[in-house]
Automatic annotation (TrEMBL):
GO terms for molecular function: carbohydrate derivative binding; glutamine-fructose-6-phosphate transaminase (isomerizing) activity. The active site is at K364 (for fru-6p isomerization activity). This is Glutamine--fructose-6-phosphate aminotransferase [isomerizing]. It catalyses: D-fructose 6-phosphate + L-glutamine = D-glucosamine 6-phosphate + L-glutamate. The lineage of its organism: Bacteria, Pseudomonadati, Bacteroidota, Flavobacteriia, Flavobacteriales. It comes from the Bacteria. Catalyzes the first step in hexosamine metabolism, converting fructose-6P into glucosamine-6P using glutamine as a nitrogen source. The keyword Transferase applies. It comes from Antarcticibacterium arcticum. Its main location: cytoplasm. Homodimer. Keywords: Aminotransferase, Cytoplasm, Glutamine amidotransferase, Repeat, Transferase. It is found in: Cytoplasm. The chain holds residues 247 to 615 of 615 of the full protein. Coiled coil: none annotated.
Length: 369
């Protein structure tokens, strides 16, 4: 097992550090930035069906559901297709309205999650086209769907999902870009620019991973907090949810993710000097508004950990700690901002002596209801 961990103390840490290469594996052979082409068999073979979708319904559970939420912003923004993101468990029991020209995208790392599988069967019965985004090759979900694209992240052993999440976002970005190009909702130059930026993401993730010691210091400061709040807006709202989920899963600290602007409708009541608030405040996407949220937290003595773009000044002045991530286009920021949140939860859980790779009560894949 030590050998399998490749010198890391836990699979989770190994998998966090694998993200640059995992993402390269996801786009290798599919994305040709110089030619301005994306090739994906499952999408190419069904391009009419996918591009003409009146609506995309994403079904997933857990971390995969969070990747689905990120994809809602990507598909709507780039390909102008309306998206609904559903917990598979709610969808399957709700008698949902599904039209024949709906496309259902099922996202699952394991490809074995029972609720996601049941949602797929229901969508197929109602005539929808079902596209799978799975990591495990040959898994039940990859076989049950009409078409699909693998994430190619390699085996993920840690129960808390890390590289599966970022590679799911990568695949979903490629699909959205392809549909956007086909539909003409994105210009050729924008398309190429997105591909070039995506190609730079692995190196930028490596730069974020270099902040590990700094994140460890922050983890030491807040490891005994009983609660933690995560805030983000737009593309980074789902990242806030995912950051909170990671902390809950492995450290058993109660954490909530919220859209930053919703803070005033409830969570602000919780803020006092005991409350660490992780705020994703990259320079793209409502930066000024997030800064004013940070001011509100500060004036109530909350502790602020800002995830900011390199060179940031405003948040740095207000926050107790900041972690910088390199600049990129807005739709790709989740691939960078997620990384310090994974590291933060990892270090807190290790410092608290928890079983990081196999947290209590959780399973890597939930094949029963
Ligand atoms: C379990 C795992 C999570 C995962 C979720 C969905 O709860 O512990 O890490 O996100 O199932 O799994 P899937 O394999 O369908 O992505």
């Amino acid at each position: 097992e030590q050998i399998e961990k490749g010198g890391y103390d836990h699979f989770m840490m190994k998998e966090i550090y694998e993200q640059p290469s995992a993402i390269m594996d996801t786009y290798r052979g599919r994305m040709l930035p110089n030619e301005g082409i994306i090739r994906m068999a499952g999408v190419d073979d069904n391009i009419e069906r996918l591009a003409n979708a009146k609506r995309i319904i994403v079904v997933a559970c857990g971390t995969s559901w969070h990747a689905g939420l990120v994809s809602e912003y990507i598909f709507e923004d780039l390909a102008r297709i309306p998206v609904e993101v559903e917990y598979a468990s709610e969808f399957r029991y709700r008698n949902p309205v599904i039209y024949e020209n709906d496309v259902v995208i099922a996202i699952s790392q394991s490809g074995e999650t029972a609720d996601t599988m049941a949602a797929i069967k229901l969508a197929k019965e109602k005539g929808a086209f079902v596209f799978g985004v799975c990591n495990v090759v040959g898994s039940s979900i990859s076989r049950e769907t009409h078409a699909g694209a693998y994430t190619h992240a390699g085996p993920e052993i840690g129960v808390a999902s890390t590289k599966a999440f970022t590679t799911q976002i990568t695949v979903l970005t490629l699909i959205a870009l392809k549909l956007a190009k086909y539909k003409g909702t994105i210009s050729d130059s924008e398309f190429r620019f997105h591909l070039q930026e995506l190609e730079r993401i692995p190196a930028k993730i490596s730069q974020v991973l270099e902040k590990n010691e700094q994140v460890k210091e922050i983890a030491f400061t807040y490891k005994d907090a009983p609660n933690c709040l995560y805030l983000g807006r737009g593309y980074n709202f789902p990242v806030a949810l995912e950051g909170a989920l990671k902390l809950k899963e492995i450290s058993y600290i109660h954490a909530e993710g919220y859209p930053a602007a919703e803070m005033k409708h409830g969570p602000i009541a919780l803020i006092d000097e005991q409350m660490p608030v992780v705020v994703i405040a990259t320079n793209k996407g409502h930066y000024d508004k997030v800064v004013s949220n940070i001011q509100e937290i500060k004036s109530r003595s909350g502790k602020i950990i800002g995830i900011v773009t390199e060179g940031d000044e405003a948040v740095k002045e207000l926050a107790d700690y900041v972690i910088e991530v390199p600049e990129t286009i807005e739709s790709l920021t989740p691939l960078l901002t997620t990384i310090p949140l994974q590291l933060l939860s990892y270090h807190i859980a290790v410092m608290l002596g928890k079983n990081v790779d196999q947290p209590r009560n959780l399973a890597k894949s939930v094949t029963v209801e």
